[in-house]
Amino acid sequence: MITFDGTFYRVTDPEFEMVIPAWEGYEPDAADQADATITFRDGSRRYATFMTLDAIQHIMDKDARTGECLDGRYFWCSDLIVIRGVGFEGMAAAI
Q: What domain of life (predicted)?
């Protein structure tokens, strides 16, 4: 189940809750990237950045234009989970 409180989306599952900050222009069914805090039933917490390959390509293309990351030659992101499709449901499924 996905709920929205005006600031955060909450994706609830019997095994975890995933909290995703609301970004302008990113809707739950169309987001190609998101940062999330995941809290499991036992209280342990993890952090993840979800991205599609297209989102990564877009960033690398931008970096090639701006000169960042050795002119777009590499991409690095801590706690990255690459997903095939867009949307929070697919992100939750990866957990």
A: Bacteria
Q: What is the distance, to the nearest Å, from the Cα of residue 49 to the centroid of all Cα atoms in its chain?
A: 4
- For 27, the token pair is 């809707």
In the block, residue with structure tokens 């599609």: 52
Intra-chain end-to-end CA distance of the chain, in Å:
14
pLDDT score at 41: 97
Residues paired with residue 46 on neighbouring β-strands, in sequence order:
38
Query: Residue for token digits 């342990």?
Result: 44
Report which of 81, 75, 90 is spatially closest to residue 50, judged by C-alpha positions: 81
Q: How is 15-52 classified by DSSP, letter by letter?
A: SEEEEEE--TT--TTT-SEEEEEEEETTS-EEEEEEEE
Q: Please indicate, yes or no, whether the overall pTM of this predicted structure exceeds 0.85.
A: yes
The Cα–Cα gap between 95 and 81 comes to 9
